[in-house]
Amino acid sequence: MSALSRVCVAAAVATLGSAAHAESLRCNGAIAAEGDSRLAVLYKCGQPVLADSYCAPVFYIGAAQPVPEPFASAIVPCQQVDEWLYDRGAGNLMATVRFRSGAVASITYGRLPR
Length: 114
Fold this sequence. Notes:
The protein is of the alpha+beta class. It has helices at residues 3-18, 38-45, 71-74, and strands at 24-27, 30-33, 50-56, 79-86, 94-100, 103-110.
């Protein structure tokens, strides 16, 4: 394989990782996106159909195991997560807006679980 071919393959592989982008939510002519505050989303999109709030466990950096007790409750027992569900009308998927630390962390689309 020539050096030029290797460079092209490496560039293609690097581009695949950068192709992912954040979702946004269009509401009443405004756009809610990652980083927006709860107040901004409420102003742009109105009240959600459903809202949930829970305490997500804190994990070690780069590990799949949560921080064990008694360290977890002594340092940071959990991270507050809020989820708001928006019904976007007939023919559109439901939108779930997830907040961490008071700001939009993600926006996902899908149907309600049965």
